[in-house]
Amino acid sequence: MTRASCGLQVAVELGTRYRIAGIEFITTDAFPAAARLATLEDTLGTVNAVGGVYVADRLAGSLAQLQQRYRDAGWVEAEVGTPIATFVGARISLRIPIRAGERFKIGEVRAVGGGARSRVAVLESLGLRGGEWYDGTSIRSGLARARRQLAKPLELHTRISLDRRVVDVEVEVRK
Predict the structure, then answer these.
(1) Coil, strand, or helix at residue 147?
(2) Digitized pLDDT (tens) for each residue of the chain, 175 residues in all
(3) How far apart are CA 84 and CA 23, in angstroms?
(4) Which superfamily does 16-99 belong to?
(5) Where are the CATH 3.10.20.310 domain residues in the chain?
C-alpha cells in the first residue's frame, strides 16, 4: 500500500496474518482452564483466541492480566512466562508456561481504628474467615460494601507470610 501526503510517499507492507490453531497452558495448578483462555481473548473472541487472529502486543497485555488474576485467586507468587510459538503457514500454536506455586489462604482478618461498631461492620462486610483461599476480588468487593455502609474512608493492608503460606488482612477505619 502506498500513500502520498505532503509530497512524501510511504510504502507499508503488512506481514502474515496468523490465526491461532491452539493455546496450551503448561501448568499443573487448579486455576480454572476456561478462565485462563477467557483472560487471553480480546474483541469478543476474535483476537488471541483459538480460531481468532494473533496480535502479539495485545497478548502481552492479556498475559499480565492473567498473572494478576492468578495472584488475586491466591497464587501470590504466580509467574506467567513467555509464550512458546510454533508457526505452520499462516497458523500459530501457543504454549504458555505458568509457574503458579502454592496457593495461599487467608490468615488473620482484623479491623482496627474507628469504634467497635465500625470494626464489626467492616468484618461483616468482608465476610472473610481465616483458612479460606485468598480471593483479592472478593476482598475488594467486601471493602466497597463496607465503605458504602459506613461512609468512612477505609484502608486495606495485606501482609504475605511466605513461611505460613497465608495472607493476613487488616482494614483500618479512618476518621
Answers:
(1) helix
(2) 555 556 778 777 767 889 999 999 999 999 999 999 999 988 777 899 999 999 999 999 999 999 999 999 999 999 999 999 999 999 999 999 999 999 999 999 999 999 999 999 999 999 999 999 999 999 999 999 999 999 999 999 999 999 999 999 999 999 7
(3) 10
(4) membrane protein fhac (3.10.20.310)
(5) 16-99, 105-173
